[in-house]
User: What shape does this take?
Amino acid sequence: MEEDIPVVICAAAGRMGAAIAAISSIYSNSDSNILFYIVGLKNSVPHIRKWIENSKLRDIKFRIVEFNPMVLKGKIRPDAGRPELLQPLNFVRFYLPLLIHEHEKVIYLDDDVIVQGDIQELYDTKLAPGHAAAFSDDCDLPSIHEMVRSVGMQNTYMGFLDYRKQTIRDLGISPSTCSFNPGVIVANMTEWKHQRITKQLEKWMQKNVEENLYSSTLAGGVATSPMLIVFHGKYSSITPLWHIRHLGWSPDARYSEQFLHEAKLLHWNGRYKPWDYPSIHTDLWEKWFVPDPSGIFKLTRPNS
Assistant: This one.
């Protein structure tokens, strides 16, 4: 038996169609045995199960994992500015070993991605000894630096951490250090547990509640900052074409069609999501979308 490739993806109530499109794209573009771990909150679990079982995705191999938001109690600072970044499922990636047990290596993907390559390639990413995870560096995007500048993208630690705070300065990390994007992760569960990564991440969440060390009014979400601290200088790299991002940063900035065609994974991180309007390159996303048999989730389009 060829081993399963475990892929973890969250299905949040208001954006379940995103997880469905991501799953559909992965399943369609790979010959490998993929085991999808679909993580949801209690109230959304029946909907996602129904959607899969009553659509063309019924043949996928999947497990539904219920995430208990109580583990986050007291660890998240309320933020009125961007409440969507505080959704409990944003923090699922912190708890991978608690949710997934029998795998040595796991892929975690944000829901706003489309996979155009064979996921086996991503799974085969080499992790250096002692590294619990691989990410994409935010300085590895030469072909789109023009676009990045045009939408004020943050790609350094300065954009995520508040360097006016002594606790942050004490880390000794230069503010101009390149950040990485934790929307695509290849993780080694043994190392993760050995280094107690989850505990370390929780420690920084707690510190942020007490000292307000990072803010989502800056570029990054509250789930990125603790990862930047904990994994600083201790992660391997994902091949650049396996994480082309910032498609959701502006509805006006476009990539060249040829570049997108070569990309293995597209990520609409940012506010402008491809199931909403306005957004860019929606055709590449919609191609993989599977309509909701219950009719609850609908795409927002200019003529709808």
Notes: The mean pLDDT is 90. The beta strands are 5-10, 34-40, 61-66, 105-109, 113-115, 133-137, 180-188, 236-237, 265-267. The first helix runs from residue 16 to 28.
